[in-house]
Structures are given as C-alpha cells and as structure tokens.
C-alpha cells in the first residue's frame, strides 16, 4: 500500500477523519453487470475455500465500514458491492430494501 501524505495544514479531528475515510483502501469488487455478478458468485480455482459477501446499497460509494471490513478480512472473505442503480443484478437477487 502506498503512502498518501496529509497535506492539510489543519490537524482538527474532522479534517483528519475525512482524510482517513477518503483514503482508506477498498478491496471490494464493484459489480455492475450480470456477468460480473455471475463471475463473482461462481467458484473459481483460487477462491474455492473463501466465502463471498455482497452488499446491495443505494449509496454510490462503498461505505467506509465496508471498506474497512474488506481490508481486515482481505484474505478470509471476498467482498462485492452493488448499487441500487444496477437494476438487472438487483432484480435477479430479488433485493427490495437497501441499507
């Protein structure tokens, strides 16, 4: 992971928090097509023993908590992310409510 310098002159809690949240790594897979979703769900040789998690959300960006989880469990789980705008994937999964 590369170092990202903090360039703001202010060291207030809110500016540091914003910097950290905006620069936290995201190891989730953004699924935007049904083919990507099918490939993600299918079992491949490399990820046979790894469980997968998909978050369906009405947010456009991956939430910070989900990014944190994808980093902490990077070698134990594979994280997928689908927005409510990806209607083909959402309808096929029969998702009706979004967190």
How does this structure look, described?
- This protein is about 35% helix and about 15% strand.
- With about 100 residues, the protein is α/β, with parallel strands linked by helices.
- The protein has a domain of about 50 residues.
What key phrases describe this protein's structure?
single chain, 99 residues, alpha/beta, three-stranded parallel beta sheet, 4 helices, 34% helix, globular
Please give a quick description of this structure.
The chain has 99 residues and is of the alpha/beta class. The chain contains four helices and three strands.
Topology readout:
Layout (H helix, E strand, L loop, with lengths): L12 H11 L5 E2 L3 H8 L9 E7 L6 H9 L4 E7 L3 H6 L7
Parallel strand pairs: 1-3, 2-3
Q: Looking at the structure, what is the overall shape?
A: globular
What proportion of the residues is helical, as a percent range? 25-40%
| Element string (H = helix, E = strand) | HEHEHEH
Q: List segments where confidence is low: pLDDT < 50 over at least 5 consecutive residues.
A: none
What is Rg? 16 Å
Distance between the termini: 30 Å
Mean pLDDT, nearest integer? 88
Tell me about the largest β-sheet. 3 strands, parallel
Structural class: alpha/beta
Oligomer: single chain
Number of strands: 3
